[in-house]
Design brief:
This protein is an alpha/beta fold and 317 residues long. The chain has 12 helices and 10 strands. It has one domain: Inosine-uridine Nucleoside N-ribohydrolase, Chain A (Alpha-Beta Complex). Bound molecules: beta-D-ribofuranose (BDR) and calcium ion (CA).
């Protein structure tokens, strides 16, 4: 599918992950609103060797084998990698039958791709969409500070305030894995929109929502339903909820239909020192400090509208 010239130019930075995979499918199914310049992979839910492979599998499921997929960092900036196989399974994409992707992995490193792409672009024209730990984005900003002004917006999944943590009592996984990277991004001065657990825990898969995807009866719909059958069990057991939270697609849905979401423009700081609360996103939701707002912190979503959008778009693949 070719993108019209009005489509927003984005780079998706990701660690698939079933919910990352749905985000990729949603983006690739929406060329009128979104032009995917490339997909950069990062170590997160599973090691980099699997996330880059999973991203290519998803591009092929979407029928978009021409998308450029890059491998970026295989570890956080200054810590050992923490992964989440207990949530996503050994492959990161447990659920459907997986296959060896035929499309190539690009030779260029993902961090270099981010730098080169932004350098070649006019100011404020490229949106970065991180769906995993922020290691690639922070590494690019550190290596090439001149690219920061080229970013239109960063819309990322990460953090939590009212929902506190999912990997520790205080921290959400993406921020916990690389808190120094998150700190660099939040202090970058770029326009930022965050999708924390506060909103993603309202975007729950239900039986009816998964079956609607399976009933599309196309490759993307069936593959997604099989991924979500596996994915939802972890959070259903943990939270006693009726389904699993579809975290990462919130980022892409926001680009397509921002009116589905509401939030507050507030100050958000990252805890990088304390062992107890490492990776906590200290969000000044009640505006009790005079710290300057640096992020649109999303708190609510029209969940029916969100799943309708995903189902309608995946039907196009
Ligand atoms: C985030 O962590 C990962 O497990 C998911 O893919 C999502 O990006 C949720 O905390
Ligand atoms: Ca992710």
């Amino acid at each position: 599918m070719t993108a019209p010239t009005t489509a927003r130019k984005i780079i998706i930075d990701t660690d698939p992950g079933q919910d990352d995979a749905v985000a990729l499918l949603l983006a690739l199914a929406s060329p009128e609103e979104i032009e995917v310049l490339g997909i950069t992979c990062v170590a997160g839910n599973v090691p980099l060797s699997l996330t880059q492979k999973n991203a290519r599998i998803i591009c092929e499921v979407a029928g978009c084998a021409d998308i450029k997929v890059f491998a970026g960092r295989d570890a956080p900036l200054s810590r050992a990698l923490v992964t989440a196989e207990e949530v996503h399974g050994k492959t990161g994409l447990d659920g459907p039958d997986l296959f060896e992707p035929q499309m190539p992995l690009q030779d260029e490193n993902g961090v270099d791709f981010i730098i080169q792409t932004l350098r070649a672009a006019p100011a404020k024209t490229i949106t970065l969409c991180p769906l995993g730990p922020l290691s690639n984005i922070a590494a690019a900003f550190q290596a090439a500070p001149d690219i920061v002004e080229k970013v239109q917006e960063i819309v990322f999944m990460g953090g939590a305030y009212f929902e506190v943590g999912n990997i520790t009592p205080a921290a959400e996984f993406n921020i916990y894995v690389d808190p120094e990277a998150a700190d660099i991004v939040l202090k970058s001065g770029v326009q930022i929109t965050m999708m924390p657990l506060d909103v993603t825990h309202k975007a729950l898969t239900t039986r009816a929502r998964i079956e609607a995807l399976r009933d599309l009866n196309n490759r993307a719909g069936i593959f997604t339903a099989e991924m979500l059958d596996f994915f939802e069990r972890f959070d259903m057991e943990k939270y006693g909820s009726e389904g699993g939270p579809l975290h990462d697609p919130c980022v892409i849905a926001y680009l397509i239909q921002p009116e589905l979401f509401t939030g507050r423009h507030i100050n958000v700081e990252i805890e990088t020192q304390s062992d107890l609360t490492l990776g906590m996103t200290v969000a000044d939701w009640w505006r009790v400090t005079d710290r300057s707002p640096n992020a649109m912190f999303i708190g609510d979503v029209d969940a029916d509208g969100f799943f309708d959008l995903i189902t309608e778009r995946l039907a196009r693949l």
